Each structure stands twice: as structure tokens, then as C-alpha cells.
Amino acid sequence: MKFDLKKFRMHYGFHKQKDFADKVNYQAPVISRMEKDEQGKPVSDKLLIAIENAFQVNLDQFKRYDRNKLGLYRDNVLPADFFQERITTKQGGGSHKENDNLKQQLIGLLEEKSALDNKYFVLSKQQHQKTVDLALLQEQLSLIRKLTDDSQQILERLLASEKIPL
């Protein structure tokens, strides 16, 4: 699945590329080129991350698309045979066993990085939700205070008009 930048931009009410570019901290000509898709390239992960940060959305599925298209990633983890095809042993270099060990270490580190990336995304999403919840609570508190003040004034007026002692 390919990310449709123009459709996303329009969905969020940015009818001008410049306004959208400002929101994601990019230059308008870059956004224009990405939307035209002149070279058939998918939207860069860097731009997708900028969009995620600006709009608090998750676009990982589109980042995986870029990597899957290249055959590099599957479910955010490199396949075990990835290095078998792409890394060759240099003549006069380390032993085949050393290279295999290094390959396995690299795969393990990449898997750990992927897991940490996923945890970071979950935590940042939770933090965003807590921020939204806090803002809602503050708004509710403000409304309750206003309601209390209004109720107090109404009660005082009623008491004054009926001369009821407290």
C-alpha cells in the first residue's frame, strides 16, 4: 500500500501545499515533488516521521511498504537469510565462522532496535493520550468552577430577594 500524500493533506484541510509544508517543517517544492511522484518513488520515511509528529498519527504501515518494496524488511525485522545473499566474505578477511557470528549479532541488534522502536511508538502514543486527557480534565475543572460560581451567585440572589437567613 502506497501513502497518498495529497489525499492525506486534503483530508486534514490543507488545501495549499505551503501550509502543509509549514506544518511538517518541510519546503513546499519537496511536498510538490512527492505529490507528483515523478520518479515513482514512495514518500520518504523521513517525511512520514515528520507527518507522524505533526499530526500525531501512526504511518508505520507506509514505512514498511518502502522497505518491503526493496525486500529489506518484513514485519520490521530482517529475514534470517537477508545477509546470506548480500554480504560476501572478503578474500583475506576474517573466517567464515567469524562472519556468520557478526551477521547473527547484527541481526540480533536490528531486531532489538525494531522492538525498541515499537516500544517508543507505543509510549509516545500513550504520552499524547495523557496530554489530551489532562487538557480535558483542566477544561472540565474550569467549567465546574464557573458552574459553582454561577450557582453561588444565583443562591445569593435568591436569598437576598426572599430575605431568607442562612
Task: Describe the protein in words.
The chain has a domain at 1-73: Orthogonal Bundle (434 Repressor (Amino-terminal Domain)), CATH 1.10.260. Residues 65-92 have low confidence and may be disordered. The termini are far apart. The protein is mainly α and 166 residues long. The protein contains seven helices and no strands. The chain has helices spanning 5-11, 17-23, 28-36, 45-55, 60-70, 82-86, 96-162. Helix 2 (17-23) crosses helix 3 (28-36).
| Shape, per Cα inertia axes | elongated
CATH topology category name of the domain at 1-73? 434 Repressor (Amino-terminal Domain)
Compressed to H and E, one letter per element, the order equals HHHHHHH
Uncertain residue ranges? 65-92
Number of helices: 7
Strand fraction equals: under 5%
The largest pleated sheet is described as: none
Secondary structural class: mainly alpha
CATH class placement of the domain at 1-73: Mainly Alpha
Q: How would you classify the quaternary structure?
A: single chain
Q: Report the average pLDDT across residues.
A: 77
The count of strands amounts to 0
- Intertermini distance: 71 Å
**Helix fraction bin:** over 70%
CATH architecture of the domain at 1-73: Orthogonal Bundle
Radius of gyration: 28 Å
Protein name: HTH cro/C1-type domain-containing protein
Domain HTH cro/C1-type: 17-62
